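so i finally got all the pieces together for this one. its two components total, 305 residues if u count the protein bits. some of the lines might not be protein, just check the labels. i wanna see the whole assembly predicted at once instead of chain by chain like last time, that was a mess tbh
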Amino acid sequence: MKKQNFFLYYILISLSILLLALRNNQGLINKVIILGIISFFAVALWDHFYEIKSSINRENTLRKINYEHLMLVLGTSFSAAITWYLNHSLGLGPIIANGIVGVLVALLFSSKKAGAFYIASFIGMSSQGIVTSMAMAGIIGLFAGFVIIFSQEIYAGVGGKGGTIAVLSTQIIRLIMSLFV
Amino acid sequence: MTIKILLVAVLATSLTYTIIFKLKKGPVLASALVTLTSGLLLPYVFPEKGVLLATVATAGSYAAMVSKDKFPRLLDMVFVGLICGLVFILTQEVFVGVGGRLGSIAAISCFTWLGIKKAKNKVL
């Protein structure tokens, strides 16, 4: 898997949201606003591509997995599963569940790990119709952990990178599971 | 309601940004605190639309998890917050229930503001 692919997947997630919004909104003004957002979004993405291009060219293949990475991936899996449990099993709702997990990981772990676990926690915010069980949240969290490790430079320094990873992971695992279940 | 959504989004981005860079707390703690507080408070303050506003605040708090190189001023966050509120309103029916949707909205908002700044610098 090449890093360019991750960049394309990220763009695909962001653009699909905007294009679906363009389709769903009926009013002319809303459509014009969305088209404006798409235009400026594209300008910034073009700039971002040149910003990270050197790092993509420098390190074009997957990094090797080490012990620290394995712990991180396990942590993201637990974080997603725990958030799902707080959200659905305890009925706290997605926002409070995410907030509790976020505060805990920020206080207990280093900033890098806390960031990864917080990202995974977004997966647990999914509705039960999308992520049907705690185990599924854990599997998606596991996958998200790998995405986090292998796409560090992409969307770096921009708020919402984690959400894009969470949507990407959730949609890919749902797609894979729909083929077998 | 539109005004409330935009206001909450701007408040959430500005507050999270202030906690990260002025109070020197990490981005995760800052965002989680704003998310948790809005999730607990807003449904009580606004019984009808509190959950929706808490969701907006959550998206705003994600949007403020930025680097200072790209977003050096608090004013950047005010505009990111406005765009975030706007994108939230326009994408309310997209990817509903998918975890990370709010973060994706945040990313779109941040990139859009960066794009506007870039275009402004080229034109002016």
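The radius of gyration of chain A is 17 Å.
The longest helix of chain A spans residues 28-58.
anyway lmk what u think
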